[in-house]
Amino acid sequence: MDNIAEDKFVSDTKPRLTLKELRHVWLLMQSLNFNRAASNAGISQSALSQSIASIERRLGVMLFRRDRRNVFVTSYGRIVATHAEIVLHSLEDMATHIEATRDSREGSVAFGMGIFVANHLLSPVLTQFHQQYPEVRLHSTVAHLDSLQNQLTQGDIQFYVAGRDPQFRNKAPLREMLYCEELVVAGRPEHPLLSSPSISAIELIHFPAITYDGSYLRRQIDQRLTNTEEFELLELNCPAIKLQQPWLLVDLALRSDHLIIASRTALKDWLSDGRLKRIEVNDLDMSLDIELTYNKDINLSPSYQRLTDTIRQVIHDQQLMIIGRTG
């Protein structure tokens, strides 16, 4: 069997038309003007006339009639042009499908995570995503909330996952509620604050705290302070030591009166085996809404959707308190 070029219809008895020839017929059908059709095809008028003549000769029918002023399509020309349109549009659909698949399997996504959530989400998210989509390049940033907000506004990241900040309204970002995390204050079993069933924020700041930046609780505590000494205690002790991973200093907390303020998820192993004891604070909101935040103006790629789906799956796998989407 003879080798047939890939851009030709295969037939042993019928004339074969190339994709280029089909496009020539379709373009001429659209404009009924040889100059315009030739320009759209990127060839000369003479070359287009020769191409149409060659097609007509091989098919044995006239596709277009010409006089000095006009071009008219024949019934045969309409048949060929109609089938040419189907074939050409099918090729466009194929190319679009391939490009969409490539975008979902390749490309890159830049995103951010707050320090609070990155400790238990980032590693499993990256591991799971790279296992499923190894061709996609991920650029992750772990930072404080104000830094993530600036990067989102500047377009350096496509989205971030962090605690809710109701004051962030730049460009009306869209938010999706992912889950509600709980902050925990913990200390050694013999810590002085454990002598009471619960404590106040003022009692809390009398002891040095190992925590993140502390801004979520500091904003609440600040409203309860009444004198210079209390403001100084807040500045000194909350936090006394700022860490991205507060539990790295569990040993210090076990040997001293230092408190650890971190997520319940991060401290669950130490709390469950009794090495740390939870200290209840009765006048602070210790729940933190974790949101996915992005700007409504940007075009979100298929890779973005796959990554955010992976984040939701990891949240589900960790049995975090999933809230669901908000409008």
Would you mind describing this structure in some detail?
With 327 residues, this protein is of the alpha/beta class. It has twelve helices and eleven strands. The strands form two sheets. Strands 3, 4, 5, 6, 7, 8, 9, 10 and 11 form a nine-stranded mixed beta sheet that branches. A two-stranded antiparallel sheet has the order 1-2. Helix 4 crosses helix 12 (302-317).
Short structural description:
With 327 residues, the protein is an alpha/beta fold.
Sheet-strand content, in percent, reads: 15-25%
Q: What shape does the CA trace take?
A: rod-shaped
In whole angstroms, the N-to-C terminal distance is 62 Å
Overall average residue pLDDT: 85
Write the layout of secondary structure elements.
Blueprint: H1 19-31, H2 34-41, H3 45-59, E1 64-66, E2 71-73, H4 75-105, E3 108-114, H5 115-132, E4 137-143, H6 145-154, E5 159-163, E6 174-187, H7 201-204, E7 209-211, H8 215-222, H9 228-237, E8 241-242, H10 250-255, E9 259-263, H11 264-272, E10 277-279, E11 287-294, H12 302-317
What key attributes describe this structure?
327 residues, alpha/beta, nine-stranded mixed sheet, two-stranded antiparallel sheet, 12 helices, 11 strands, 45% helix, 18% strand, disordered N terminus
